[in-house]
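User: Predict S-adenosylmethionine-dependent methyltransferase's structure from this.
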Amino acid sequence: MKNLEVNPIGKVVNGEDGTYIEVLPQYIPALKALDGFSHLQVIWWFSDFDSPEARTVTEVPKPYKNAPEVVGIFATRSPVRPNPLALSTAEVIRIDYGKGRIELTYIDANDQTPVLDLKPYTPSLDRVENPRVPDWCSHWPKNIETSEDFPWEEEFHF
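Assistant:
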């Protein structure tokens, strides 16, 4: 298998002006026709956790209070993984096509995090009406809208 190469198309900015994705100038034309999509799927790089050691982790001790004693890394949303990729669904406030800036309500990425790709959230492909999850996380919120009020700090061991 050959190695793959990816290049950032922009970065996350969390600052005084709010939260937004700053798209590199050469990719601004790729934003055309995003108007009307309320949410984007943002593929980003866990750059703060990219190290040779972190890429070897395949299991972690019980990260969630109700989880099994050992959890495979693919059953977590941990930034420590073989390929430090992340996927977040983010609500769009506004798109400034001139500046290549996509203002968001929130994204769980740090300031200056490299963004690798953007995809429009479309319910016909991205929404699952009745997803199944293990018992240990079945009490978690069922959507983004109620997730912000959930006491997440009571779920984790860290």
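The longest strand covers residues 85-96.
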